[in-house]
Predict the structure.
Amino acid sequence: GAGVSQSPSNKVTEKGKDVELRCDPISGHTALYWYRQSLGQGLEFLIYFQGNSAPDKSGLPSDRFSAERTGGSVSTLTIQRTQQEDSAVYLCASSVLRGEGKAFFGQGTRLTVV
Amino acid sequence: GQQVMQIPQYQHVQEGEDFTTYCNSSTTLSNIQWYKQRPGGHPVFLIQLVKSGEVKKQKRLTFQFGEAKKNSSLHITATQTTDVGTYFCAEGGYKLSFGAGTTVTVRA
């Protein structure tokens, strides 16, 4: 596609349920990032994939959060046993080069845990 | 890891006035990027600065990278209502680490 695609755009889930958020980066981009943005707040780094290297998971807030990137392309962020504090916009971004080139963001997935 | 600090957190500007927002780091930065996020939108890349003392201009926006590569600034002249949004700086080099942003509102 022409840009970074995220799905779903909105997700409402009950507390305790698991959710999967999907990111389809720009073709050929080797770097992929996940960020979380709470209302009116900045971008909280979650995880970073670079090519075939082991991902940098240092930003994941708990072991309920995990992410994978299959075939160096599509990425899925999974949140298990969701809590109300997980409610936020989850943004995915990709870039050609790690940290050196401009990052293109998707529209985000707005997650609401009720 | 390294952190970039942005000031001010909020900037209320009269339309037509100029303002500057700053991005500071305690350590040398490989490069600095600036993004703009409109209300309800996602961050959009504005510029990347790599060289010490680099200055780049985009119409009414002027971006500067400090000589020591530890700070950067964004200066907007003759602010317009279209400038409303949050401006983030991000440290590049390994992964993109964002500052907390400066949220700009404009009084017409």
In short: The mean pLDDT of chain A is 93. The interface with chain B takes residues 31, 33, 35, 40-43, 45, 48, 56, 58, 91, 93, 95, 98-108 of chain A (CB under 8 Å). The radius of gyration of chain A is 13 Å.
